[in-house]
Specification:
Structural class: alpha+beta
Helix content: 40-55%
Distance between the termini: 20 Å
Number of strands: 7
Order of helices and strands: EEHHHHEHHEHEEEHH
Largest sheet: 5 strands, mixed
Strand order of the largest sheet: 4-5-1-6-7
Number of helices: 9
Radius of gyration: 20 Å
C-alpha cells in the first residue's frame, strides 16, 4: 500500500461489500421513531408487526425503552434518549428500512464497542452495504476497502487488511510510550505515512 496522503487524515470512509439518511423526529410515539419517515399505514402495508419492531429494538439493545414506554406513548424523545440511545435509534431505523446501502458517519461514537460490533455484524447479515466514516479501528474488521483523505486534496482508495493495519496501529502506540530517540522518530514517521496519520493520532 502506497498512501497518497501526506498529512493528517481528516476522515476515513470505510467500505464493505452493499444510502439511507437518518432524520431525528422530536415528538411522537416510540413506533414513529423507529419507522420514520414511514407512517403506521406504511408499516402495515409492508406487513411489519410490532413484534418485528421489538426484535429490531433488541438487536440495537433498546428493548428496555419498549418495556418502559411501550410503542404508543407520545413523548419528546430528544429529551429522553441519551446520545448513545439516539444513535442506536437511528440504527433501528436502518434495520427497519433495510436499504441496500447505508452511509454511517460516526454513527456509533457514543455506543460501547461490544454493542457496536453486534450492530455492524447484524447490518452485514441483513445484506446492507456499509459506507462508514469513522476513527475507530474496531470497525475496520467489518469493511473490505478504505478511502482516506488528508484534507489537502490527496486521497487513496485501497483494499483494507484490518489485521496488518491494527498491527501498525499497535506498533505506533507502543513507540509513543518508548524513550525518545532518532530511531523512534524515523519509525513513527514511517508509520504515520502508512496510516495517513500525524504524530497526535
Amino acid at each position: 500500500m502506497i498512501p497518497l496522503c501526506r498529512r493528517r487524515t481528516q476522515a476515513q470512509c470505510v467500505v464493505t461489500s452493499k444510502t439511507t439518511k437518518m432524520h431525528v423526529t422530536l415528538r411522537g410515539n416510540l413506533r414513529d421513531q423507529v419507522i420514520y419517515p414511514d407512517t403506521y399505514a406504511d408499516m402495515i402495508n409492508k406487513q411489519v408487526t410490532e413484534e418485528d419492531l421489538r426484535k429490531i429494538m433488541r438487536m440495537v439493545h433498546l428493548e428496555h425503552i419498549v418495556e418502559r414506554d411501550t410503542f404508543h406513548e407520545v413523548k419528546d424523545w430528544t429529551d429522553i434518549l441519551s446520545g448513545g440511545e439516539k444513535q442506536r435509534m437511528a440504527i433501528a431505523r436502518l434495520f427497519y428500512h433495510k436499504p441496500k446501502y447505508a452511509l454511517l458517519d460516526e454513527c456509533t461514537s457514543a455506543v460501547s464497542i461490544d454493542v457496536e460490533s453486534h450492530i455492524y455484524q447484524a447490518a452485514i447479515d441483513m445484506g446492507i452495504t456499509l459506507l462508514t466514516i469513522t476513527h475507530r479501528p474496531t470497525l475496520w474488521k467489518f469493511h473490505s476497502h478504505i478511502l482516506q483523505f488528508d484534507g489537502t486534496g490527496y486521497w487513496e482508495f485501497s483494499e483494507l487488511n484490518h489485521h496488518s493495519r491494527l498491527d501498525l496501529k499497535k506498533e505506533k502506540e507502543e513507540l509513543l510510550r518508548a524513550k525518545d530517540s532518532a530511531q523512534k522518530e524515523n519509525r513513527l514517521s514511517e508509520l504515520n505515512t502508512l496510516l495517513c496519520e500525524d504524530m497526535t493520532q
